[in-house]
Amino acid sequence: MILAIESSCDESALARLDPARGIVGEWVHSQIDLHKEYGGVVPDLASREHLKNFFPLLSAAGLSADRGEITQIAVTHGPGLAGCLALGIAFARSLAVAWELPVVGVNHLRGHAYSPFIALHEQAPAEYPQAFQALLPHLGLIVSGGNTILFEIDTNQQLTVLAETVDDAAGEALDKGAKLLGLPYPGGPQVERLAAAGNAKIYDFPKAIAPRNERRFSFSGLKTSLRYRLEKMGDAELEAAMPDICAGYQAAVIDQLVGKTKHLIQAGQDRSLGLSGGVSNNKALRAAVERLAKRFRLSCHIAQPKHTGDNAAMIAFAAFADPAGLAQGAFSIEPALRLAGQ
Prior knowledge:
Shape: globular
Strand order of the largest sheet: 9-8-7-6-10-11
Number of domains: 2
Oligomer: single chain
Largest sheet: 6 strands, mixed
CATH class of the largest domain: Alpha Beta
CATH superfamily of the largest domain: ATPase, nucleotide binding domain
GO molecular function: tRNA N(6)-L-threonylcarbamoyladenine synthase activity
InterPro entries: ATPase_NBD, Gcp-like_dom, KAE1/TsaD, TsaD
CATH architecture of the largest domain: 2-Layer Sandwich
CATH topology of the largest domain: Nucleotidyltransferase, domain 5
Number of helices: 12
EC number: 2.3.1.234
Enzyme class: transferase
Distance between the termini: 29 Å
Strand content: 15-25%
Number of strands: 11
Catalytic activity: L-threonylcarbamoyladenylate + adenosine(37) in tRNA = N(6)-L-threonylcarbamoyladenosine(37) in tRNA + AMP + H(+)
Radius of gyration: 20 Å
């Protein structure tokens, strides 16, 4: 039984995983309302909230002085905000000492990489190893506020980064675009909400700053294009055009994500396609990835909405499903925006 701890940013989260059954409990405390007035996450405030929330969450999980059935502790050790990661690791190690249990470090991005397979495991836990192996090689896309990464898990379960952003992440581009439009934090969901009522063909934004045959993403030019467009518009014109602008801007982000993914599908021999990360909760993006998988006859695996953001369930699952990617012993904080081992 694994107890997982996630504190890479502004979510304090615990989860319990039973390899024979799947995720048996999740407990999360969100800080969105706290940071909303600042227009983004304030690291010092986030760290303070983790310190305040961990023990109430532990009690909610039915654990305190007694470790119950827990046999291993897993904790996010990067990437993320250094202060938040440090508190999570300190909490995990204090529990490990008190309960005399081993503790392992999980890379947050590896958690996202494996999160689409949580549902596959829960459907038939005993059959999961064979079912997962049949999906390899697997091409996965992680899309979040801090990362945009295409990776592959080969038949030996080795994970390799194939492409990543050279500037803004896709989620960052959506949030910055929302800020330019005067939308409240968090901005990405606001853009999606307005885009649902808009026409993406009215306003044309650059859809592939980086050539599609290059293994990299770039979104900073998209944000600049939006700023130049807004400088030419009055308040009344902008208000009337807001749904169409949001639709066009969102479509430009999705087009680049899908375009790069399509190129790598064509260049490889993957059997399955995955989507995860906070931005993967965007319905238009999910639909586009599903269509892409169907077109190339790939098995499609998208993280459940509750496992797209910062959550401890994916940390617990990665500790179970990806033992080769774990940090053992006296591991340290790794706040770098890369997958472990890359």
